Amino acid sequence: MLNVYDILETIRMIQDECLDIRTITMGISLLDCIDTDIDKACDKVYEKIVRHAERLVPVGQQIEKEYGIPIINKRISVTPIAMLCGACPNQNPVKFAKALQRCADTCGVNFIGGYSALVHKGFSAGDMALIQSIPEALDVTQNICSSVNIGSTKSGINMDAVKLMGQIVKESAERTADRDCIGPAKLVVFCNAVEDNPFMAGAFHGVGEPDCEIHVGVSGPGVVRSALAKYPDASINELADIIKKTAFKITRMGQLVGSRASKELGVPFGIVDLSLAPTPAIGDSVAHILEEMGLEMCGTHGTTACLAMLNDAVKKGGVMASSTVGGLSGAFIPVSEDAGMIDATIAGVLSLEKLEAMTAVCSVGLDMIVVPGDITPETISAIIADEASIGMVNSKTTAVRLIPAIGKKEGEMLEFGGLLGSGPVMPVRDKSPAKFINRGGRIPAPMHSLKN
Amino acid sequence: MRAVITVIGKDNVGILHKVSGICAEFHANVLEVTQSVLQDMFAMIMLADITEMSGDFSALVDRMDSLGKELGLSIHIMHEDIFNSMHSI
Questions:
Q1: A143-178: b (≥16 Cβ within 10 Å) or e
Q2: For A302, left (φ over 0), alpha (ψ -120 to 50), or beta?
Q3: Strand, coil or helix: what is A432?
């Protein structure tokens, strides 16, 4: 039975508290597009993606209207392109990136993710060529996202890949220096990457997934913050309960939109990703939730504890609201995309080290962090290795999305605009990890990976 | 299938008439109305049956949007499913 209070609460969440569906993402398998002739493979990729996804944007818009809930992005994730490259070695994989860009233009989607390689244990045919081509691919396309999985709890960390990715991130920034170094903002380096993630830049369609499916990523930090603001004197376990109830409502909305999109498009429903994803908009910040819990500013002592509680409560509330929860599911902390994180970084309260600690207890990792342009590739690699080891040892997904701000120093800003926001350059240590990074090889999997 | 229409804004002559007029035009049967006027602020929630509506739901949304703009009111029309799914188990 509908009641007035519930109706007004929903409308307030959408109108005043930035509640939205962050993305509906269609996962499409490209395994049947593999061909020894790269041009033929590109044609098959284009045909298959457009055939499945041509109605994605109009259906998304129709659902937005019907339920009055904004769906910010419509996206596509595809099979890691390195798997297609394996069949046509000696060809330039950028052709695939250009084909994907044509798909994005035709379908009108915001992003296509899956210019990816999974090299956590080693490089197979196609992986090396794809990784080497990432800087060019991100330079010549606008809407294509790339990711590389360099480690997992089961297999350890591929340090050769870690070394390589430091160079790729730096090169990608250099190639796009005239566009605020946008290249590496579309590139994620993962440990324990998930196969059904709807969020960019790390989305790809894993090989264990069906041919085509629909995922939904919800959002709503603003809703959680204002729910907490109503209880200034509540104890921490009472706050956890409030977050659970709010997460439940947000997730139910995601479940509704996902199942509706799946029905309209005739494609199976994949998962709801229960993430609190911030945007640079006022009132849409994860940092502000932590501050509402009682921190003077995000990044101060106590931040990790608050984030751990928030992350856990979001999952507990959301998990009952959806038939299938998956993806990354947790609180995101992308610095440039979160107004509160940006303020805390400018104030010098939020540091790279604190962010690293926070990634041990929340979803994903060091995300959208701008570092000085003169950072060495080895330092980037070492930051990736640190973050990947947190993921490997804790059996969780961690990721690194660093943006070297070419020509800029600590204290200056990079402006990306839109959902990516703007980021202050954060300081890094100046002592070299080069010898460690140049050793190569693999960090063995931890003892607790042997569960069988 | 029902739609929930909410109208909030400065009170004026004929708001109810105009909103229900659009419902009638789309053959959406008004089932319930609660409204209150506090000083000069008008707030109304209307429940309409859209099972046998004529035309497209999105066309109805567009009409309500343009009426809202014309009268300077905040008018929302949403499918009831969103409220049912968010607020009941």
A1: bbbbbbbbbbbebbbbbbbbbbbbbbbbbbbbbbbe
A2: left
A3: coil
Question: Could you give the CA distance from residue A139 to residue A77 in angstroms, rounded to a whole number?
Answer: 19
User: What pLDDT was estimated at residue A122?
Assistant: 95
The interface predicted TM-score (ipTM) is 0.85
Overall pTM > 0.80: yes
In the block, residue with structure tokens 């990044």: A299
Question: What's the CA dihedral at A405, A409, A413, A417 to 10 degrees?
Answer: -10
Which residue's structure tokens are 């943006």?
A403
CB contact (8 A) between residue A69 and residue B81: no
CA A331 to chain B, closest CA, distance in angstroms equals: 20
Q: Which residue of A has its CA nearest to B64?
A: A65
A319: left (phi over 0), alpha (psi -120 to 50) or beta: alpha
Amino acid at A20: D
Phi and psi at residue A178, to the nearest 5° = -75, -10
Q: Which residues of chain A have pLDDT under 70?
A: 1
pLDDT at A285: 93
**Under an 8 A CB cutoff, do B86 and A249 touch?**
yes
pLDDT tens per residue across span A45-93: 999 999 999 999 999 999 999 999 999 999 999 999 999 999 998 899 9
- pLDDT of B31 > 90? The answer is yes
Digit-coded pLDDT (tens) for A356-399? 999 999 988 899 999 999 999 999 999 999 999 999 999 999 99
Q: What is the pLDDT of residue B55?
A: 85
The whole-angstrom distance between A256's CA and the closest CA on chain B is: 7
Decide: A357 and A412 in contact? Cβ < 8 Å: no
**Do residue A256 and residue B78 have CB atoms under 8 angstroms apart?**
no
Residue from the list B34, B77, B82 with its beta carbon closest to the beta carbon of A10: B82
CB A298 within 8 A of CB A354: no
Contact A28, A78 (CB under 8 A): yes
- At A220 the pLDDT is 85
Q: Do A7 and B81 touch (CB under 8 A)?
A: no
Give the best residue of B85, B88, B89 to mutate against chain A (max A CB count within 10 A).
B85
- Structure confidence at residue A76 (pLDDT): 96
| Residue B87 contacts A, CB cutoff 8 Å | yes
Q: Is the dihedral of CA A404, A386, A164, A128 positive or negative?
A: negative
